[in-house]
Amino acid sequence: MTAVTIIEFLIAVGTALSVFYISYRNTFSKAIQYFTVQSNILSAVVSLLCGIWSLFAAEPYWLLIVKFSATCAVTVTFVTVVVYLWPRYKNWKFLFVSESNYWLHVVGPLLAIAALLLRGPIRLPFAVTFVGLVPVVLYGMLYMKKVVIDPEEKRWEDLYGFNSGVSWKLSTVAMFTGTFLVSLVLRALLACL
Asked: Which of 35, 50, 105, 162 has its CA 20 to 30 A from that of 136?
């Protein structure tokens, strides 16, 4: 069993425990509204698949691409917390330490990045950069529907404040641009490490 395989299983178990805990403290239907939770679940499922697969055979190329996309998603979670939420809410204990946030905002994303980069060096085609955008684009469409488009009584709370004080259009452009940059950086690091 390689170090990458161990990290993959650790991501799956740590995330499962964190999501269980946050669902117990709130409700799963509330917890799943957060991209943090969705991206970590995606990362955990892909990590579990990668870990199991690596026990029996070499990882297929398509699974590497899915791993890349899932890693982009949790990296966006990490970067959003550090660059946007921390300065906005100034509550580092809640964002980084309390309850399951430490795992979902910090440890899980950093382990996912390590598990991806330890596979390198691997040169991925430039087109794969856009695959890294898929989870954020899908969540962005869901979030826009639930926060902006749905009737008032069916709307979600604007969990991130993307629609308060700033145009959702600007927030959308910022998130997609940031995600594209994350995807570019991860692709470049994977090629050279």
From this structure: 50
N- to C-terminal Cα separation, the chain: 21
Residue 54 to residue 51: CA distance in whole angstroms: 5
**Single pTM value for the model:** 0.92
Q: Distance from CA of residue 92 to its chain's centroid?
A: 19
Counting the structural domains of the chain, the total is 1
From first to last of its 193 residues, the chain has per-residue pLDDT tens of 799 999 999 999 999 999 998 888 778 888 889 999 999 999 999 999 999 999 999 999 999 999 999 999 999 999 998 888 777 777 666 666 677 788 999 999 999 999 999 998 999 999 999 999 999 999 999 988 988 888 989 888 887 777 666 677 888 888 999 999 999 999 999 999 8
Q: How far apart (Å, rounded) are the C-alpha atoms in residues 20 and 154?
A: 25
> Is 120 within 8 Å of 190 (Cβ atoms)?
yes
